[in-house]
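Exercise 7. Predict the joint structure of the components listed below.
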Amino acid sequence: MQEDFHYYATYCAALLAGYKHIDSLDICYAAQMVDHCSVTWLKKFGGPYMAATTQLQAELLQARTDPIGLCDITRIWSAFHFLPKDLYADIDKGTKSYKDKYRLICGTNGDLLKDTVKLAKGKGLEAAGIAMHVLADTWAHTYFAGTPSLVINNTNWYFYELFPAEGVEPERRQIVFSHNPSASEDVDKPVYVSSVYQSNEHSIMNLGHGRAGHLPDYSYIRYAYLPAWGGYKEIIKDNPHDYEHAFAQMVYALSYLRGDIDVFEKDSYAFDKIQSHLKKIRGIISKRQIDASGDWKAFGESLTGEEIPDFDMDKYILEYVHSQDKSDTYLGRFFNGALLQKKMVAEKIMESGNRLAGFL
Amino acid sequence: MTIGQKLKNVLSAISMILIGIAMLFFGEKAYMAIIGVFSLTLDIMGIRKLIFYFSMARYMVGGRNILFRGILLFDFGIFTGSLVWVPQVYILLYLAGTLAFSGVVNIIGASEAKRIESSWKLKTFQGIVKILFAISCLLFMHSEIRVVDICAIGFIFSAVMSITNTFRPHQVITID
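Solution:
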């Protein structure tokens, strides 16, 4: 997912869950910050490297892919962007190494999602924002794993965009990805860009949904493809459906974090709270565009009449740098929430007998 | 590409350049060593692919490609090793053939890249030059020394292209 959903849609979800404008801004800021908090950025002002929640393209290109390097990559991407659905998934094929990778495949409503939301309870708005990022990404990044793996994350030529029509099977148009570094995506032509095929199992090109390009990040698209792990069974990814559920689940989870609900249950959605806005939300989600920030922003501002400022990743650096008690700053609380999330996920993966994420 | 992978590619290219230089200076005397190294490299690459296939890639959609590549590489390795008992002219023809094959693969790759608006010019250039080297080998087949020189220059060219490719930018999707 991108800034449109992690920042603007998360703001809208927080408002609908009952948070005030200012608190909603803090939550959506943290949700978006997860995509920016890299070691390179942390170095800029002396933040703790361990709290990194993402890796920049340049960092990934230089990242080690030996077992220790793979653990570093997997800890970050599994904890924040590709939360595993089932660490004990019943799979009757493959070596242990294959099974370990298979069990890191991201999916919705797993036990780790429940752990993630419960962990954020009572830890402040920053931790709530982090949890919302993780939750939303389980919907967008489902079927891909947060570890570099050809045998899990690869895709092939079988990739079709689906155009639903009344009473008949959806029309299919084959998607041919461009690998040109300078190509820009165009939803009308369409031109979609993806990572190039690399037969090396641990190539960084095989991390997450790189081989499927940005398609999982676009809310309007429906597509059919053959995931590498799926035994030639076609998967249909219906992003409009998934993004709507992601939004409704965020409102539900935020209601829990706010204290309106006592217990967080999996597979629960606050459709009652968004019912009166559902037509508007569906309209934004299904609009064919690469970036829906403008529409989500307008929707959010229409809910409160307040302005939503543009996301500025350096907004809280001065406060952090000049503070005597860094743990009591916005970034201090964000780092704490990120460290707790990373530690929790790494420990759960290790407890399952899977060593791909190592220890924190 | 990581620093390690870049280093691996550069070292492999440097060894190809050294082979090319050895062929230029020592001519037929370098044959046995070149064939030995070539054969061993192909066998190791083939075995690695086969291990990867049987441990993991056989469960993957399209994983049989890895199996076929492994078998083909291993087979080529054994075949190359067997050439030590064959007259030199056939070895040179074989080396020219591998250059031509590699050139054709480059051109097919380039046409595919062009179709999906990816970079194709360098690959096409690489493919055409390799095929021209192979044709030159055939034209000068009667002169073993010239054929050796052409093959040597072909190896050096491939190595230089490999280094160039190593340092070219590649598309990586930043996952948000």
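Discussion. Chain B touches chain A through 30 residues (CB under 8 Å).
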